[in-house]
Design a protein that fits this description.
Structural class: alpha/beta
Shape: globular
Radius of gyration: 21 Å
Oligomer: single chain
Number of strands: 8
Helix content: 40-55%
Order of helices and strands: EHEHHHHHHEEHEEHEHHEHHHH
Largest sheet: 8 strands, mixed
Strand content: 5-15%
Number of helices: 15
């Protein structure tokens, strides 16, 4: 592995505090000079990781990026209680007792936080220089946010990136005010692209992409309490765009193979690039799958340290297992993973009604 040099795009999922796993992955990648970086497609917590990494690279190279990521996540750990609660002792007490989480289901952030105070804005302002990102050389960025009126994704590129774009990408509408950009309102990019893989494959000149997947495709636990049901709805909502992108990629691949076999022809340039793109994968599911979904909104120091360490370890394993395949073949096995997810549903149908499933 040490003898090989290569370059990969990065596709970074959102997942709130679980994004500390991605921090660990990036820290491990940056520590090894054999890997270089192409484009970065990112959403929500992935977007925060992406801009921290790119800003750090611009200011201080690979070591500067590692330092910047740690600074940002150390700051995240200190923002464990929304800043506007500090000025309302009653609400602060409710937050510590868990009552505020229930209140958030009945009241909007416009009721609970009419001034729109956002501690994430101050955190980002303190650590990320967007003018440096926009004007310096480095990886292209595709930061996804969801256009509230239409539900479609908007991808903010490096040359147009602002703090508002990152805040929009991480804007949970039950907690934060919508972010207004150029007269339009935006919510979390996870509703529409978590992250965008298709644009990355179609447009990046680099033909290998490493996906850092925070959200497992399947959560087998049956939700029964109100808290568990709400958490599982959130899981399904933010997982759907990712699964949709994977399914689209596999559809294009099957179409390309069919055209070559039947007609000896090829797809148009965009679809051909998507079909030929090589994907690789590092999964956090073994570490995040058993955590309550609401832990994404609780950046406790112990949790962040645990997930960061797990990310470092899993990235090291990926290097040993897959680095030699970068530039050679796809290792993410998207079709197999999607089939396994579908088979899980089929097995459960058979268990409930063997005759109907047959």
């Amino acid at each position: 592995m040490k003898a090989k040099r290569g370059i990969v795009n990065l596709a970074l999922q959102g997942g709130g505090a679980h994004g500390a796993f991605t921090w660990g992955v990036l820290d491990r990648l940056l520590a090894d000079s054999s890997v270089d970086f192409g484009w970065i497609s990112a959403t929500s917590a992935g977007a925060l990781n992406a801009v921290a990494m790119v800003a750090g690279l611009a200011e201080g190279g690979r070591e500067g990026a590692r330092v910047k990521l740690r600074q940002v996540w150390d700051a995240v750990a200190k923002v464990n209680e929304p800043e506007y609660l500090k000025y309302n002792p009653l609400m602060a007490g409710m937050s510590r007792s868990g009552v505020l989480a229930q209140a958030a289901q009945m009241f909007s952030p416009y009721d609970l936080n009419p001034l729109g105070i956002d501690p994430l804005r101050r955190l980002i302002e303190a650590h990320i220089d967007f003018s440096t990102i926009r004007t310096s050389k480095g990886p292209e960025l595709l930061i996804a946010a969801t256009h509230v009126a239409s539900g479609t994704p908007r991808l903010f590129r490096r040359s147009e990136l602002t703090i508002e774009a990152v805040l929009a990408s991480a804007c949970l509408p039950t907690v934060q005010h919508a972010v207004d950009i150029e007269g339009a309102s935006y919510w979390d990019g996870g509703f529409s692209a978590n992250p965008d893989l298709v644009t990355l494959a179609a447009e990046s000149p680099i033909e290998d992409t490493l996906i850092v997947q925070l959200v497992p495709l399947n959560r087998p636990q049956r939700p029964t309490s109100a808290r568990e049901i709400a958490g599982h709805i959130s899981h399904l909502t933010f997982n759907h765009p990712f699964v949709r992108e994977l399914e689209l990629i596999e559809t294009v691949r099957r179409l390309a193979a069919r055209r070559r076999w039947i007609f000896g022809g090829s797809l148009d340039t965009r679809d051909a690039r998507i079909a030929a793109h090589r994907f690789h994968l590092i999964e956090a599911g073994r570490f995040t799958g058993g955590l309550p979904v609401e832990s994404r909104g609780r950046p406790e120091t112990e949790l962040l340290a645990y997930l960061q360490s797990a990310g470092v370890t899993e990235a090291g394993k990926w290097f040993e297992r897959c680095w030699r395949d970068v530039g050679v073949r796809d290792t993410a096995e998207i079709e197999r993973r999607l089939a396994a997810n579908r088979d899980t549903v089929l097995v459960r149908q058979q268990q409930r009604d063997p005759e109907a499933a047959a």
